Structure formats: structure tokens, C-alpha cells
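User: Can you write out an input/output pair for a complex, sequences first and structure second?

Assistant: Here is one pair. Inputs:
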Amino acid sequence: MSNPDHDREAEVSLLDGPPHDVKIKPIEKKKEAPQRAKLGLRRTLSEKNLMALTGLFLCLFLAVHLLGNLQLLLPPEIAQWQFNFYSKLLSGNIFIELISYLLFASILAHAIYALVITIKNRRANGHRYDYDRRGVTSKWYSRKMGLLGTIILFFLIIHLRDFWYQLQFGHVPLDKDGQKDLYTLVVTVYHSGWYVLIYVLCMIALGYHLLHGFFSAARTLGVYDPRYVEWIKILGWIYSIGISAGFAFIPVYVHFARG
Amino acid sequence: MRIQLRVWRQEHKSKPGQFADYELPEVSPDMSFLEMLDMLNDQIMRQNGRPVEFDYDCREGICGQCGVMINGRAHGPLANTTTCQLHMRTFKDGDIIHVEPFRAAAFPVKCDLKVDRSAFDRIIQAGGYIAASTGEAPEANSILVPHEEAEAAFDAACCIGCGACVATCKNSSAALFTSAKISHLALLPQGRLEAKERAQQMVAQADKEGFGHCSNTEACEVECPQAISVLHIARMNWEFNRAAFF
């Protein structure tokens, strides 16, 4: 039986005298050929897969969260009961609790992997360019996902502190039906113009993050057919604008209409 | 036309480099960028200096040897152009042009503007081939390849390996280069059989060489002299993911 290694060496030696400065390091051969496909979890692509999957899960969550929040826009007397009932319904559900653990895990994994990937990429860059105009070849938000993500993380901390933490561990007064009055808490918080402004700015950051993230996730997972690619781009635009505009509209509306 | 140049000079990989300023008083707008560098070297050598080293071979845009960062962009300000196909008429009289080597940890500078791109060769060695004896050219109709697939495979096969994709990538990712070969061979019936192993091995090698992650900014497609589509990257991801699960 012929040894494939041997043949390759023989071929290379035919190239007699390569230019002195060309040095092609041969690959060290693995001891055994992999019989089964390995998951290869530490590959760059696997790390991007994790970013894509956690990102898409968070995308799904955002859509459900927005639908729930739209109840705030109902007429005040209905909205209060409806929203408080909805909040009670979710907080008392074991299934929702399990999903919330998955959600926190996804946020953490998405953020930590983003950091790991960024550090690895910095290392891959090597020497910096003295004069760098590469920015003109791509969209700014596709290059600034880390910055946009950091803004979103900052927003999440404020957001969780003011609502989630209050509801879980704080003292939220009860409404006339004996439910925790999250509605009044929300309306009170949105009283502050500064708070609403920060919300809106963060939602713009979220919109750009989603605009690149949604389509990039599909690419990472391997959607290569041009027909689907077109549709995913359109869907990404609709989704990103819908989510960010929807989440930004609610505090603005509550601030001016219920203020 | 009068051109001022700021060129990266570095004698050896192990020595630190720095920029040097030169001035060329009479550059013809019809010259290619490389001819302008020839003119510069002529001027330097007449003054007994060490000429600026840069890679080139065919000078007709198909070999992938030339490639430098010109005014902060891979292969200069035009999209889908090699350095040799960039002409001085793109610049104005009195312009200052910054010339730097392609930068990436996996592309160490060898000398001045020359970088070591053998990492690309090792990625190809890792799986960019069909591991079967091809024999003589077979009867063309015995294995049918639809026209669209043949064209798509050829588009991917057009990669000249210049490294502009890596140079322009904010993460120094070799995704476009690696995927072009994976896609080229995965589209054809002979290459299809080993598509999974090829994707795994070539991706593993690219990682080992120290290239970064693909962020899908699509900058590489803009600078690629062959305008190789970023959708090949998506196909590589598909092959890689498929290999892990089914």
C-alpha cells in the first residue's frame, strides 16, 4: 500500500530549489485520522455558532417581551389590571422560570464569548495599521457590535434593577385586586424625561445591533442560498426596526400620555 | 505628476520597522502602482540605497502575488482591484501616499512590503484538494454538472490567494480565502464526497495559523480582486456545521 505522506514528500522534492525566502512549513500529520466527525467546540466557527444561537434566542425573547409590553398601551384603566395580571401570570409559572434561567445564561454566554472572541481577534490582528481607511468597505455598525453590545448590557443593568429586581426583591405596592402593581411602577419610572431619553438611545443601539446580528447569525449558521439571503435581509430590517421602534415608543408614549 | 510616498521599511522580520518618506517628481498617470514603485527603487538605487522590497509576479492581476496597503486600503482605493492593476491616474498631483504591508499576526512581514503568506498554503494543504487519483480527463458527459453549479464553483475557484481579505478584515479572518476553496470543491460532484472533512480540516488549520473570527462585515468582498462572494463563507459554515451533526 502506498503511503500518502511519502507521495507528498516525493512531490515536494521535485520542486528543486525553491526561492531562498519561501519556506512552506509542512503540516504535522495527526497520529490517527478522525473516524467520526468531531464537534470541534474550540474552533472559531463553533464560537461564532454559540454567538449566533444565543443571539437568536435573545431575538425570540425580545419579540415575546415586546408583545407583552404592548399591553401598557391599552387605555389606562384596562392596562393596569391587564399588565399586572400578565406579570403575575408569568412570575407564578415554573415553565417561565426555567426559560428565565436559560435567558440569563444566554445573555451571560453571549457577553462572555463576545469578550473572548474580541480578545482572540485583537491577537490575530498583529501590528496595527498606521493609516487605516478600511472603514469605508463595511457598515459602521457591523464593526461596532462590541460597543453596541456594551450599551445594551449597560441598559440591561438599569432595566433589571428598576423592574425585575423591584418585582422580585423590592416592595411593590398592591393594586385594588391584590396584584403587585407593576403598571404603576412602570408609569412612575417613565415619568423622568432623562430616563426615557436614555431608554430611546439604548433602543437605537439595540436596533443597529440587531440589524447586523440577525443577518450575521443566519450567515454563521450557514444560510448560503441567495434566495434565502435576500429574505433574511428584509426580515432582519423589519424585525430590527419593529423591535427597537416598538420598545422605544412605549416609554415615550407613557411619558407624554400618562405623565 | 508629483507624488510623495510614506513607505514602511523593515529590513527583517526580527527588526523593528518604520516609515520613510520619498518624493517622486515625475510620475506618469499611466503608470501602474508597481511601475511607480519600480521608479522609486530606481531612484533609491541611484543613490546607493536599499531598494524597497515588494512582491509581484504577473502584473496583470491574476497571480495574487502583489498586494500592499495603499492609503489605508488593501490594494488601494479602488474596489476589486489588485495593486498591479491600480494606476497612478487614481491619484492626484501632490498626493501623499501611505504604503504599508498587509497586516495580520498570521502574515509576518518578511521585508519592507513583503509578507509571509505561507499560512494560506498550509490551509490548502490541510484539505483544499480531492484525495483521489484523477487519472486522465474523463468523458465530459459521464459526470453531469449543471451549468449554474459549474459557474458557481468557478467563481469560487477564481481566488488568487492575495490575502487582501485578511488584510482588510477587522479580525484578520481568513474566512473568505478558506471558504472559497471549500465552496469550490463542495459544489462539484468529485469534491462533494469529502466536503465535511475538508471543511473541518481547513477551518482547523486556519485557526491554528492564528487568523480571527468572521464577523460578516463583508469588507473582504469589496477588496477581493476577484469579487468572491461572501456567500461562500456561509457555505463553509454550512459544511462545517453539517460535519458536526449529520
